[in-house]
Design goal:
The chain is α+β, with helices and mostly antiparallel strands and about 260 residues long. It has 3 domains: about 110 residues, OB fold (Dihydrolipoamide Acetyltransferase, E2P) (Beta Barrel); about 60 residues, no CATH class; about 70 residues, Winged helix-like DNA-binding domain superfamily/Winged helix DNA-binding domain (Arc Repressor Mutant, subunit A, Orthogonal Bundle), CATH 1.10.10. About 40% of the residues lie in helices and about 30% in strands. A 5-stranded antiparallel beta sheet has the order 6-5-4-7-8. It has a 3-stranded antiparallel beta sheet with strand order 1-2-3, with no helix packed on it. Strand 4 and strand 5 form a beta hairpin. Helix 3 crosses helix 4, helix 3 runs antiparallel to helix 5 and helix 6 packs across helix 8. About 5% of the residues have low confidence.
Length: about 260
């Protein structure tokens, strides 16, 4: 029996391959460009959005590469109630079922949650490190098959479906390395001068944030009034996002995490 797959959101969101299960009545596999074969999933990240329509709860679970669409049905379901009660934003762990379907001519990859719990930033970072190790191992299997080594039918199927090349594998590896680097960044790594600017910028973000957060332009303007340059403020915002002190709920806006 295969355990729950660990996969990054950036890879999962690009899935367009669904493979029927070998076992009768089993769920279909959602197969990603990075070579992950997913039925059960174990995910960790920041719960950044919760919206409700009819009896369905739509959530966004962000990791360093993107965001998962987590959809919980049933107004009175235990998991739905859990998600509804968790403050946004919060770090959470989700065990769920992978789902892939067509909509408006495209593919939609979602996660149906079965178990949810709150975690801390350190727990999220441990998940990123473990997931990166697994993702790199999958890319190595894909590369080996691409170079002509036989015997891995699953890897061969992924390569054919997604038209994988060495260049595409290198691009995916770079995304994984970037996610891993962000998880390992320590506050001590920020220079002292930048830390002072980051503190000022973070105070502005907390003070000015509304339901959508605060626009980056407003942060630049208010920090400028304190004598900070636009370049320094943008660098501070980038550092704060990397360290998971804040996040971007939408383009051009930032919000405390």
């Amino acid at each position: 029996m295969e355990g729950a797959a660990r996969v990054f959101a950036g890879d999962y969101a690009q899935a367009t391959l669904s493979v029927p299960a070998d076992d009768q009545g089993g769920a279909a596999w959602v197969v990603t460009p990075g070579g992950a074969w997913c039925r059960s999933l174990y995910l960790c990240g920041a719960l950044t959005e919760v919206a409700e329509a009819a009896d369905v709860l739509y959530c966004r679970l962000a990791d360093p590469t993107g965001a998962f669409d987590v959809v919980a049905g049933g107004r009175r379901g235990a998991v739905t109630e859990q998600l509804r009660a968790i403050p946004v934003p919060s770090f959470i762990a989700v065990t769920g079922t992978a789902q892939l379907y067509r909509k408006n001519g495209g593919w939609v990859a979602q996660v149906r949650p079965e178990f949810v719990e709150t975690i801390d930033k350190a727990g999220r970072n441990r998940w990123v490190v473990a997931t990166a190790d697994m993702a790199i191992a999958r890319l190595e299997r894909l590369l080996s098959t691409l170079e002509g080594n036989p015997g891995d039918d699953r890897a061969a199927r992924v390569i054919r479906h997604y038209g994988l090349t060495r260049e595409k594998l290198r691009a995916m590896a770079a995304e994984i390395e970037a996610a891993l680097a962000g998880a390992r960044v320590a506050p001590e790594a920020i220079p002292v001068a930048d830390a002072d600017i980051s503190t000022a910028v973070m105070e502005i973000i907390r003070a000015e944030s509304g339901p959508r957060g605060v626009s980056v332009e407003d942060v630049i303007a208010k920090a400028g009034a304190l004598g900070h340059t636009q370049a320094a403020v943008l660098a501070a915002i980038e550092a704060l996002i990397t360290n998971d002190d804040c996040y971007q709920p939408q383009k051009g806006y930032i919000r405390p995490l």
